[in-house]
Amino acid sequence: MSERSSEFWRWREYRHTQPNMDWNQAKIVTAGIDIGSVGSKAAIILDGQLYAYSVMRTGGVSEETAFKVMNWALEGTGLKTENLHQVVGTGYGRVNIPFANKTITEIACHARGAHYIYGPSVRTVLDIGGQDCKAIRCDNKGKVMSFLMNDKCAAGTGRGLEVFSDLIRIPIEEVGKVSLNVTEEPPPVSNTCVIFAKAESVALLRQGWPKEKVAAAYHLAMVDRIIDLLTKVGIEKDFVITGGVAKNIGIATRLETNLGIKPLEPELDPILAGAIGAALFANALYEKQLGLR
Amino acid sequence: MLEEVFETFRKWIDNRHEYARAWKERTQNKVVGYFCTYVPEEILYAANILPVRILGSHEPPTVTEPYIFAMYCHLCRDCLAQGLKGKFNYVNGIVEGQSCLHLRQAFNAWRLHIPTDFAHYIYIPHGVQNPHAIQYLTQEFAKFKKALEDWTGKKITNEDLDRGIRIMNKNRELMRRVYEYRKLDNPKITGLEAMEMVLSSQMTDKEEHSKLLERLLEELPNRKLNRNPGVRLMIIGSEDDDRVFMKNVEALGATFVIDEHCTGSRYLWDDVVPDEDRLFAIASRYVKRIACPSKDWAEFTRVNHAVRLAKEFKVQGTLVIQNKFCDPHGIEIPPLRDALGSIGVPTYPLEFDVTVPWGQFRTRVEAFLETLTGLEELF
């Protein structure tokens, strides 16, 4: 693919089934669907353990995406939606999931999902999604204690990073690493608005700044904005990052440097936190229906 | 019958301009627009003038840029926009009672750029906790009364002032009685209905409004709302007439059982206590009333009031509203959070603008409600 026709903003879509797990042996099979503004995720759990999942880009119609991402997660497992005991929807498109039994906010679901992915020591969750950023404080059970979200603009979020990747023509999955190839951090660009940040980045490129340096300025602006939010809600160890941007090493490294707290390393893709949390809520709600809780 | 009363409140708000025009035509009296609830409506009623509150339309104000800074709050820009668009072209005059810099700018820009017969600025003291505040405000009200007399050509007598006080006190008292029904485990009215009751009182003839309130109070004891009240919320903060927000939040499984806004309880909480010196009596009410945070210093007296309300109305959680750039209400968020938190009532802050991004706000409010409903206790 030529550079001209490349979609630098595009990230990998994929699905996975855990080997050595058999849904036929499970007492309770539940699913969580997280229809985000940019990415959609589905997670299926068997008796509270992650079994299969899928991650894809959110299309123009949330209902269609919900079916697609769910069917993709089920693909090859032999499971059908009618085999699911309970489905919980979350994310911006949560109200547009026709087969969800209940909707729960992504705030509660990310806290719960982070608890599953990283363990009970998590106290601060930073979820950087497509169009917003959430700082969540939780207890040792993954219960939300307090939270804050950024305001309207997408600066400091995944969609802003996609716009920037496309501008400097570096694939989004590499742009974080590229941004670290500087000997000294430059001043950040504007962090109040994606459009302003992009315009400033264009000006810096025209001034002859190398792409790495402009990328560093952009990442630093995002990090400044995220730290504002984290500071307001208060940061307590252990600190973790969820959402698609969690995989950006330029953001994670700068957060560690500027906060003095190292985020925990995930063993699972942290973009799944919301969907996993939703599936765990579905499991708990179904157990409650059965009188098991 | 009872639903008709609420429907009438809604119609009055939606057709506020038509109402005021019809009133003017019918009575051949003047209508005055006021910007802030520190304007003593008692004196306007004494002069047989209809006071109507100038509020915005919640449409992006596209005409105010040359007259007012974009970093002023949306309320003041939206109010000015209504004037510039001619929506209030029936008012004979405008009055502002000093509260904040932003509304003062809206008033001054209106006075400069929109032809009007009468414009009066009342220097309500900022230092309402100063021991000389009542004495000072009595003199300010005397100047206001004189200005009205000069404008209308009619003397305002003590009997006129008594009538103005009576009209206002009665309306406030009736609304407070309606608020009592919000204390019930299953409130008789929703937060949206309460907001529409108070808002409509700021836009209509109080005597007509009070007649409806009397009807409402006759029938309210028998009312049964066919809804689960859900989480008992308080809403507190900057000027708020966003009815869509109230409706949407209450549809998520909650009821606003009390508010602390100048479009709500703060408007009706205090009466004028009669005194031989009528202007002194009115001034005392405006100095001692539940203060707007622009005046609530050196002590944050309103914070204790909010705690009392939370206890009386059995509040489970509080949404704290700050209009973007409304610094006085921003400053009080930390003490409110701490004081309400100390009695086990969590708060959640929301920043309002001329339009509310409901998608984002819905997530925040729902997540806040989830922390209060026991959903999180499943694990």
The portion of residues forming beta strands of chain B comes to: 5-15%
Q: Based on helices, strands and strand pairing, what is the structural class of chain B?
A: alpha/beta
Question: Which chain pair has the greatest contact?
Answer: A-B, 24 and 16 residues
Count structural domains of chain A: 2
Biggest sheet statistics of chain A: 6 strands, mixed
Q: What general outline of chain B do the C-alpha atoms trace?
A: globular
**What percent of the residues of chain A sit in helical stretches (DSSP H or I)?**
25-40%
CATH architecture of the largest domain in chain A: 2-Layer Sandwich
Helical fraction of chain B? 40-55%
Q: What is the string of SSEs of chain B from the N terminus onward?
A: HHEHEHEHEHHHHEHEHHHEHHEH
Shape type of chain A? globular
CATH H-level homologous superfamily name of the largest domain in chain A = ATPase, nucleotide binding domain
- Adjacency order of strands in the biggest sheet of chain B: 2-1-3-4
Note the total helix count of chain B: 16
Q: Which consecutive residue ranges of chain B, at least 5 long each, have pLDDT under 50?
A: none
First-residue to last-residue Cα separation of chain B:
47 Å
Mean pLDDT of chain B: 95
